[in-house]
Amino acid sequence: xxxxxxxxxxxxxxxxxxxxxxxxxxxxxxxxxxxxxxxxxxxxxxxxxxxxxxxxxxxxxxxxxxxxxxxxxxxxxxxxxxxxxxxxxxxxxxxxxxxxxxxxxxxxxxxxxxxxxxxxxxxxxxxxxxxxxxxxxxxxxxxxxxxxxxxxxxxxxxxxxxxxxxxxxxxxxxxxxxxxxxxxxxxxxxxxxxxxxxxxxxxxxxxxxxxxxxxxxxxxxxxxxxxxxxxxxxxxxxxxxxxxxxxxxxxxxxxxxxxxxxxxxxxxxxxxxxxxxxxxxxxxxxxxxxxxxxxxxxxxxxxxxxxxxxxxxxxxxxxxxxxxxxxxxxxxxxxxxxxxxxxxxxxxxxxxxxxxxxxxxxxxxxxxxxxxxxxxxxxxxxxxxxxxxxxxxxxxxxxxxxxxxxxxxxxxxxxxxxxxxxxxxxxxxxxxxxxxxxxxxxxxxxxxxxxxxxxxxxxxxxxxxxxxxxxxxxxxxxxx
Length: 480
Prior knowledge:
Elements: H1 10-17, H2 30-35, E1 51-55, E2 69-74, E3 82-86, E4 93-96, E5 99-102, E6 110-114, E7 123-127, E8 131-135, E9 147-150, E10 164-166, E11 175-180, E12 189-193, E13 201-204, E14 216-222, E15 231-237, E16 241-246, E17 256-262, E18 275-279, E19 288-293, E20 298-302, E21 315-317, E22 334-337, E23 346-351, E24 364-368, E25 381-383, E26 388-389, E27 415-419, E28 428-433, H3 436-439, E29 442-449, E30 452-461, E31 477-478
Antiparallel strand pairs: 1-2, 1-31, 2-3, 4-5, 6-7, 7-8, 8-9, 10-11, 11-12, 12-13, 14-15, 15-16, 16-17, 18-19, 19-20, 20-21, 22-23, 23-24, 24-25, 25-26, 27-28, 28-29, 29-30
């Protein structure tokens, strides 16, 4: 699919096709670093970010299996200190053309946050395969079931974990957007709820030839040019695989630009295995597009700027050999955030299928520092349950970061999220380990520090410790 397939206004063209964008060689200033606001996941107003963990396979007390649950873990100066369990409503039916269908199927596999209610407070958006609930901010902890957004006939079964929230248009307030596998339409698309509307808006995406299932395999959102509006970036996969940017994602004609395109056999990103996130990697105040392709061992970064994105990545490497060996883990094992507090976001990559000390699938996380010049590969930290150091398998271990040990099938790094939980301006690396203890699961929380990831005061969260009994794969779905 040619990169000349460009639809939309000259403004979007300038956004995604600027040729004079900085390639990350400038010096980041404190003012520029502050221009991109850090993640705000504070659901109770105590000044500390919170974490939401989706448990779509949990049975609610009054429901059937797989109705779902969400655990909200409250942050504090010493890490997570409290929690609240959210369950879907008793009546989980939505209308369809042939009657009604359960909307609670796998609630919790979509997680995002933003000020949906326009009251200046951060709301938690938790979704199922059919609908989303906005759980509103409360001084007593996140309240539940305040606002409902149903997708009616639109099907999202294959598009798990891709819900995004942001101000995607000119009107203040956060909007909700997610890709949908549209069995009832001619192709895949984006469905969204804009400016508090309960009715969904559907926008068909440019078709790709022969998608194996849902064509959108990865998505991310951020502000690439500092105008206060959110851009949506996604990987659209079929016989060709495109990296696209949309702004906004619901207008007609479609405002869409292809940043990069590759066939499955080529050695250029993107690929169907690619993972996608956004964050300010070079600390200039504009969000950047980060693409990791495990099957190629590659990392690309398209830098944002006041005039938009360049048409080619400002940083590219295919030297991440630890990525493309053995099982590749999860498409959710990528997060971008500032771990060391220097104003440049770091890149955490989970390799859940990595063999550690001879234990297949024990898992590993690599954290690549950001800088004014972009990612610093020589500063990469490698984390397992047994070690934290500058090589994937230090012998002997430099430090043992958590009070757990690697076991086969743990899946450490299946999901990863960088959030400043302790309020010190340095992001914690939160690692989902859903295979732990026979697929019960756990979280590992490693503190951020001026020198990067630290093993000091690391925290381990088991589901039983937060009131979840009979947990299944705790850590698969994390807010990030």
